[in-house]
Design a protein that fits this description.
With 129 residues, the protein is mostly helical. It has helices at 2-14, 19-27, 35-44, 55-64, 69-80, 86-96, 100-128. The chain has one domain. The chain contains 7 helices and no strands. The protein is globular.
Length: 129
């Protein structure tokens, strides 16, 4: 997973994220609700999903791994605007009867999310520097 995260890191930085966050979104394709646990697991370098009850502890892990307000904003934006989970994509295929709408349903929101995150990062860096 570290190899994939390192590979994606330069692109993720343009979006105000890091390679681990982007990798977690990709690995979260089966179920989007596992993205944050995958991020935490990656940061803690453990081979299991973490079960942290304390929101303060979670916040500390994120801050220790370089999260800023910009990172949190872009994670929220990309969470709202990225590809649907695999179950939704398979339902679209079944209902539409082909792959055309599956591909459109995957690409369109993802491209929008990437662009909006990049714009947010650009604006943030312009204003805060």
């Amino acid at each position: 997973m570290t190899y994939v995260a390192n590979f994606l890191d330069p692109f993720a930085k343009l979006m105000g994220l890091d390679g681990y966050i982007l990798t977690a979104f990709l690995l979260g394709l089966p179920a989007n609700e596992i993205v944050l646990p995958i991020i935490l697991m990656s940061y803690m370098q453990k081979g299991i999903l973490v079960d942290l009850e304390n929101a303060h502890e979670i916040g500390q892990i994120l801050v220790q791994n370089g999260w800023t307000i910009l990172t949190a904003i872009n994670v929220m934006i990309f969470t709202l605007l990225h590809f649907p989970c695999s179950t939704t994509l398979l339902t679209i295929k079944k209902e539409a009867g082909g792959w055309k709408w599956v591909i459109i349903s995957f690409i369109l929101p993802t491209v929008c999310g990437v662009i909006i995150c990049m714009i947010t990062t650009l604006v943030w860096n312009t204003i805060c520097i």
